[in-house]
User: Which sequence fits this backbone?
C-alpha cells in the first residue's frame, strides 16, 4: 500500500491510503504549523505508510498534536508509534476518551479537551467539539479549524472505494448510499440515530464549514452547511424510525 498526499485547504494535507481488503480509504490529515497537528493516526499496521506521507510535508519527529475522534484502531491505533517517533507529541481528545481508554492505552497521557475548548497550534486554531455518539462512540469528538473552516468529521460522510481527494458536489448522495448499503452489510448499525444526532449535526452546520475532511472517501469543499443538514435528514429518514419489536 502507498499513500497519496494532497493539500485540501491551506496547509491542510490529506494523507490517503486505500486498503484493498477493506475496499476503503483511510485518510489522515496533517496541519503544517508551528505545532503540527495530525488528525487520526490510522491503523498501527499502517504506521510506516502514514509516516511516509507526513514526511512528504514535514519532519515526522516535529508532530506536536495527535487528534482523533473516538477510540478505534483507524483513529488512534498507531498512537504509541507516533509518541515514540515524535518526542514532543501528545494525544488530544475528549475528556471521556482520555479517561475511559486513551490514558491506559497510550504510553503518555493525553491532553483532554472540554467541549468548545480551543487548541492553538500557530496560525491555525482548532475548536474541539464534544459529539457523543456522532459519528459513534460515547467518547466521540470532532475538530474544527477556524481560519479556513475545515471540519475534521471522522466517519461522517463515510463512502467506500478509492475516490478522488476532493469533490465539490455529491458527497451527501455518496454518504446516503453507503448508509443504506451498511444497514445490511457485514458490519451493520455503525452509526446510531439518537436523541443527540440531529442537534449535533445542526451545531456542526452552524459552524459554517468550508471543507469537510472525511476519514473514508473524498473530502468535500463547497456548501458544507447544507451537506450537514442533508446528512441529518438522510439519517433521520433512514435510521430514525424505531424498529417495532425486537
Ligand atoms: Fe469510527
Ligand atoms: Fe473510521
Assistant:
Amino acid at each position: 500500500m502507498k499513500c497519496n498526499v494532497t493539500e485540501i485547504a491551506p496547509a491542510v494535507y490529506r494523507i490517503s491510503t486505500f486498503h484493498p481488503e477493506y475496499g476503503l480509504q483511510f485518510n489522515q490529515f496533517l496541519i503544517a504549523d508551528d505545532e503540527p497537528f495530525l488528525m487520526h493516526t490510522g491503523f498501527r499496521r499502517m504506521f510506516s505508510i502514514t509516516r511516509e506521507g507526513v514526511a512528504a510535508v514535514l519532519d515526522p519527529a516535529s508532530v506536536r498534536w495527535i487528534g482523533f475522534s473516538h477510540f478505534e484502531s483507524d483513529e488512534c491505533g498507531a498512537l504509541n508509534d507516533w509518541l515514540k517517533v515524535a518526542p514532543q507529541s501528545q494525544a488530544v481528545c475528549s475528556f471521556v476518551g482520555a479517561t475511559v481508554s486513551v490514558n491506559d492505552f497510550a504510553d503518555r497521557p493525553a491532553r483532554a479537551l472540554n467541549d468548545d475548548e480551543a487548541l492553538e497550534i500557530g496560525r491555525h486554531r482548532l475548536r474541539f467539539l464534544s459529539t457523543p455518539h456522532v459519528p459513534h462512540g460515547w467518547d466521540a469528538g470532532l475538530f474544527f479549524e477556524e481560519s479556513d473552516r475545515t471540519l475534521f468529521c471522522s466517519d461522517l460522510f463515510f463512502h467506500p472505494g478509492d475516490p478522488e481527494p476532493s469533490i465539490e458536489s455529491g458527497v451527501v448522495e455518496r454518504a446516503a448510499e453507503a448508509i443504506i448499503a451498511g444497514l445490511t452489510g457485514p458490519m451493520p448499525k455503525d452509526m446510531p440515530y439518537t436523541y443527540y444526532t440531529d442537534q449535533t449535526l445542526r451545531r456542526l452546520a452552524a459552524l459554517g464549514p468550508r471543507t469537510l475532511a472525511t476519514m473514508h472517501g473524498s473530502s468535500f469543499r463547497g456548501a458544507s452547511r447544507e451537506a450537514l443538514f442533508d446528512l441529518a435528514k438522510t439519517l433521520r429518514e433512514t435510521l430514525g424510525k424505531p424498529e417495532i419489536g425486537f
Q: What stands out?
A: The chain has a mean pLDDT of 95. The pocket of fe (ii) ion (ligand 2) is lined by residues 74, 155, 215-216 (CB under 6 Å). The radius of gyration is 17 Å.
